[in-house]
Design goal:
The complex is a heterotrimer of chains A (313), B (299) and C (498). Chain A is of the alpha+beta class and 313 residues long. Helix content of chain A is 33%, strand content 14%. Chain B is mostly helical and 299 residues long. Chain B is elongated, with a radius of gyration of 24 Å.
Chain lengths: 313, 299, 498
């Protein structure tokens, strides 16, 4: 507080009570006082009301109206007191340059460069060793800070629990039979034993009512025709954009839409993205049916599911 | 002083106030002005026999013709056999109102699809929600007040059903008395929320279509929609969602989606942070900025 | 009597702490009266409410992903397996008296905290208050904005409901999109590939309630300390120079006004907190990674990032055995990084461009700096566009237009609209500068035509506020002569402080 403000040191002449700067801002102070007083009374009542509302019942709206009303009224009253009834001013204060004098600056620079330089230039070895030591400390302290947090990703980003012959089950663990869905039906399924798993969620859709002996439904791209069975197809339910569940199936247009960022996938053509930010088709799960008609995976996914990452080839 | 206050603050205050109020109305479900406000108690979530009423209410003849006493089995849902007597009047209604697009035998024309094999429940859904007869040919039929009363709707349905007996979706009778709301909640989240949103407000789909709001759907319509998959909606067969589960979903839609526990105040339309941001910025920050104007004003 | 006690206490304190001189200076600190100087106070007082309500809700919230069966009062959840985090958040809303009021007020306070920071920052930017010597305070402010957004997201994620869980899922994928280290950072932070081993909720919790708030409080102290040290800026006007500050003193006038404003800000937050429902987690249900609701958006201050993600084309880069998900990395990592860096370096860019190294305590009117104003308007337009793009689905549904059309509209608007807005802003600034006396109140004149056809003009009746001359500012008087002889009768002694 090296303020060289003279008016704080030397006594100013006392201000007269009728100095216009000290007069209230309001033209009719009595009126303003009445308004402020009423507001404060309302505020008081509001807080009492909150106490009552709290004890009488548990109603969020009454609590808000009483507490908020009380705060609003009391706050209005205090503000009105300050705005209308306190000295109207205007007052001023001087602004002093807060930077130091040139001599002080030079002294500071000298302290750093000369005093410090003298020491450091003579003891370069110690300076270097201290720098080395503290750098090493900084680096090794990062290990527990980061490395202890969790495991390395390893293969977990590439793997799912879908294996050859995995049985498709619903989220309740019920096996899915070929007769379960009608055309246009949609169901979220998991490999047996892994219900609810994020990485393994698969959306199962029935595109056609075909029996076991009917020719397979032609699905694109070519080469995947036998990946469906009796009109069923299955895709990973994790969006290739940001991993949201692609749960929005439009039956007429045969599109899957991601509810998060509206990527649109074509169900009939290997779930290639038609619009939106998703870069890749949803990976398809090849299906088959066992002897009793329960749906199973022919194989696992042939690629990592979900959004992209650096290690993905 | 006072008139000055009006001049300086009335305009911005009115602006913020109007925008805020219109916003609240726009986002409030069913545009119900007042009733949204203060719901404090949990709704009685045990919906009673009234839920079976849509089928009963209109005329005595319907309830007389249909033996729809509450199902005694555990599912709480069974499918009605519409009486043979409905078929003849239904044919007349169909010829007068539907045949121009769907063809006299319901086989479809280039204006409207083939109705054969869809079943009475499908027809009941489209007609009872007012989507049929179509008002104009937009991308998607919109819900509007139905043109036909309950009996007429069922008569048309019965006639369409008579074209292909036993096929398609039947008209359900839903008793939500013993429904499991927790199961309905879980099933709704898994199967319905991805399109209709978790609050049932509905949202836009690809291609100009949209998932409609569920705030007016009756339990019967809910089950019919689940089973028949109108428009872009998937079909949920019994192997996918059992009758009991369909009943639970219908009860959840009827009880919780349509009467949400808005313990926290205005529901803001159940559209989440979009409505909340609108209110927070316009009403919250806006109101506080008006207070700033007042405090800082020195004229 | 009371005066004597105060005097004695102050002397006692001053003997030990030496507070009299500095304290007196602080009581005399002048605050300019302009309304726009109070915008930052909205943020300050929202932060106070955030701390208070945050302490309350933290007494009931359990940061644990441990699964339990819900048995609370909300019937449709009874019997469901939920996390303790979710169960305790719903419990706070239903089974703790005033709990929902506090939780919602906390959430609204976060929304309004960041909203008022944005408005305050726009004021500081457009009036040039960030110029020398206040560059540090600008950077401190931007840092608080960033930390506020981060903490908002963390808090939004804690209830473990369906909507916020989707947000965490997206956050994981954004981390994963960083080249080279992304998948490692992701598994480190989450304790394994998504959803990890249940550590993310406790980790978010400690960040949300301890680490980020501590940083925020530290920065806030620096922000206010610098403000006192460097004193307020002020608009040009009568008697206002680069070397003074004109306004009302800290004590008593400003204290009264600002205390009232603290109460009124709190009032708005609690009124919203009990009347406007925010984030009804009981409707959303427990988060499960295979479940989703449509129309999920983050809170508004994250909306611009979500919007950028939505309108980004699918430009994934694949090559040399690696993938760079540019469709995520660019909008969600590079874009915000760029924006915040522009904010931080702007004072230095501008002073280099204008070669202006002088102190500035008087503010610019935006029109007087057309280039800066145009740049600010362009930035605001860009941010508004990506912000609105985060509700493409809701907009498409509301206006009954195809979703793809809305997305394309924003893809184009994000590039075109800022340019148009900047040009328009620049032109308007120049037009306003060219017109004399624009924006000032003019005294209307009445033109009369006499019976002989002569015209004459007279001034109209003065309207309230016309011709009010501000007094010349004086230093805050040290002493007030409370009892002048002519009023020594005793009446009116307290008139000044009424």
């Amino acid at each position: 507080m090296s303020d060289d403000a003279p008016r704080l040191e030397g006594p100013l002449p006392p201000a007269a009570l009728d100095d216009p700067h000290l007069q209230p801002y309001a033209k009719h102070p009595e009126r303003a006082q009445a308004v402020a007083a009423v507001a404060m009374v309302v505020g008081f009542l509001g807080f009492i009301g909150f106490g009552v509302a709290y004890w009488v019942g548990d109603n969020t709206q009454w609590e808000a109206v009483t507490l908020g009303g009380g705060l609003l009224a009391l706050g209005f009253g205090v503000t009105a007191w300050g705005k209308y009834l306190m000295p109207q001013g205007p007052f001023e204060e001087e602004r002093h340059e807060f930077h130091s004098t040139e001599a002080e600056r030079e002294a500071m620079t000298a302290a750093v460069t000369e005093r410090g330089g003298m020491v450091l230039k003579r003891r370069k070895l110690l300076g270097g060793l201290f720098a080395l030591g503290s750098t090493a400390m900084g680096i090794v302290l990062l290990f527990p800070l980061l490395r202890s947090l969790g495991p390395k990703p390893g293969n977990t980003l590439f793997e799912t629990n879908w294996k050859k012959n995995s049985q498709l089950v619903t989220v309740d663990g019920r096996a899915v039979h070929v007769d379960d869905l009608d055309v246009g039906g949609v169901l979220t399924v998991f490999p047996k034993g892994f219900t609810g798993s994020s990485q393994d969620q698969v959306i199962l859709i029935r595109l056609a009512q075909l029996g076991p002996l009917d020719p397979p439904l032609v699905i694109y791209p070519p080469g995947r025709t036998d990946w469906g069975v009796q009109g069923y197809v299955a895709y990973s339910k994790m969006c290739t954009h940001l991993g949201c569940p692609v749960g929005l199936y439009q039956e007429q247009t045969q599109q899957l839409v991601c509810p998060c960022h509206q990527s649109i996938f074509n169900v009939q053509s290997g779930a290639i993205p038609e619009f939106g930010p998703a870069p890749r088709p949803l990976p398809q799960l090849p299906l088959t049916a066992d002897s009793v008609g329960n749906l199973r995976a022919q194989n696992g996914f042939n690629q990592a599911v979900g959004p992209g990452f650096w290690e993905r080839p | 002083m006072r008139s000055l206050f009006r001049a300086r603050f009335a305009a911005p205050a009115a602006l913020v106030g109007c925008v805020g109020f219109v916003g609240l109305l726009a986002f409030s479900p069913n545009a119900a002005p007042a009733g949204v406000a203060v719901t404090t108690t949990l709704p009685t979530l045990t919906t009673t026999a009234t839920t079976a009423a849509p089928l009963a209410q209109p005329t005595q003849s319907v309830s007389g013709a249909l033996n729809y006493a509450a199902p005694s089995n555990q599912t709480g849902l069974f499918y009605a056999q519409l009486p043979q007597a409905f078929v003849a009047p239904g044919e007349a209604l169909f010829a007068a109102n539907c045949a121009s697009c769907h063809g006299p035998a319901g086989l479809g024309t280039n204006l409207g699809p083939n109705l054969q094999g869809l079943g009475a429940g499908t027809v009941d859904f489209w007609v009872s929600t007012g989507r049929m007869p179509l008002a104009n040919s937009s991308v998607q039929a919109t819900r509007k007040p139905p043109r036909f009363n309950r009996l007429q709707t069922l008569e048309i349905s019965a006639w369409v059903q008579s074209l292909t007996p036993g096929q398609g979706t039947q008209v359900p009778i839903v008793n939500t008395n013993n429904a499991d709301l927790e199961a309905g909640n879980t099933l709704f989240t898994l199967n319905c929320a991805a399109c209709h949103t978790i609050t049932g407000a509905g949202d836009a789909l690809a291609g100009g279509a949209y998932a409609p709001s569920l705030h007016l759907a009756t339990p019967v319509q809910t089950v019919e929609a689940i089973r028949s998959g109108p428009g872009n909606m998937p079909h949920f067969s019994v192997g996918n969602i059992t009758n009991t589960q369909a009943r639970d979903i219908a009860a959840y839609v009827d009880g919780v989606i349509q009467h949400p526990v808005n313990r926290g105040g205005f529901g803001l339309g159940g559209i989440g942070p979009v409505g909340e941001g609108f209110v927070g910025l316009l009403i919250g920050v806006g109101a506080l900025m008006l207070v700033c104007f007042w405090i800082g004003d020195r004229t | 009597m009371i005066d004597k006690t105060i005097d004695r206490s102050l002397r006692w304190l001053d003997d030990r702490l030496g507070i009299a001189k500095g304290g007196r200076t602080l009581l005399d600190k002048i605050f300019p009266d302009h309304w726009s100087f109070m915008l930052g106070e909205i943020a300050l007082y929202s932060f106070v409410v955030l701390l208070a309500t945050g302490v309350f809700v933290s007494l009931y919230y359990i940061p644990s992903a441990h699964e339990i069966v819900y048995h609370g009062s909300y019937v449709p959840l009874r019997g469901q397996r939920v996390s303790e985090a979710y169960a305790s958040s719903v419990g706070l809303s239903f089974d703790v008296k005033s709990g929902l009021l506090m939780r919602q007020a906390h959430h609204w306070a976060a929304d309004i905290f960041l909203g008022s920071i944005a408005v305050h920052m726009a004021r500081v930017f457009f009036t040039g208050a960030f110029r020398k010597p206040r560059e540090f305070n600008w950077i401190v402010g931007v840092s608080m904005l960033i930390l506020g957004i981060v903490n908002g997201f963390l808090g939004y994620s804690l209830p473990d409901d369906l909507v916020s869980g989707t947000g965490i899922r997206i956050a994981y994928s954004i981390i994963e999109s960083i080249p080279l280290v992304g998948s490692y950072l992701g598994t480190f932070l989450f304790g394994g590939n998504y959803p990890g081993n249940g550590v993310i909720i406790p980790r978010f919790y400690i960040l949300h309630v301890l680490i980020v708030p501590l940083l925020l409080i530290g920065l806030l102290a620096a922000h206010l300390g610098l403000l006192v040290k460097q004193k307020h800026t002020q608009f040009k006007g009568k008697g206002k120079t680069e070397h003074n500050v004109v306004g009302t003193p800290m004590f008593p006038t400003f204290i009264a006004k600002t205390t009232g404003f603290l109460f009124m800000t709190t009032a708005v937050l609690f009124l919203l907190g009990g009347l406007a429902q925010i984030n009804p987690i009981w409707q959303f249900g427990q988060y499960e990674p295979y479940q989703i609701s449509y129309a999920v958006q983050p809170d508004w201050y994250m909306g611009w990032l979500d919007g950028a993600l939505r309108i980004m084309p699918s430009w994934e880069w694949v090559g040399w055995g690696h993938t760079i998900p540019l469709e995520v990395f660019l909008p969600a990592v590079i874009f915000p990084g760029l924006i915040f860096n522009i904010f931080i370096v702007w004072p230095f860019i501008e002073s280099r461009h204008t070669k202006d190294l002088a102190y500035h305590n008087l503010l610019d009117r935006p029109r007087d700096r057309p280039l800066r104003t145009a740049a600010g308007v362009a930035m605001l337009t860009l941010l508004f566009m990506v912000f609105f793009a985060s509700s493409t689905d809701v907009l498409a549904n509301f206006f009954q237009v195809p979703l793809v059309a809305v997305l394309w509209f924003f893809r184009i608007a994000v590039i075109v609209a800022p340019v148009i807005a900047a040009v328009v802003a620049y032109k308007i600034c120049n037009e306003m500068r060219a017109a004399e006396g624009i924006g000032k109140r003019k005294r209307p004149q009445i033109v009369t035509r006499s019976s002989t056809g002569e015209y004459s003009t007279t001034d109209a009746e003065p309207r309230p506020g016309d011709g009010v001359e501000e007094l010349d500012a004086i230093p805050v008087p040290t002493y007030i002569d409370l009892v002048p002889p002519e009023l020594a009768t005793g009446a009116g002694v307290r008139r000044v402080m009424r």
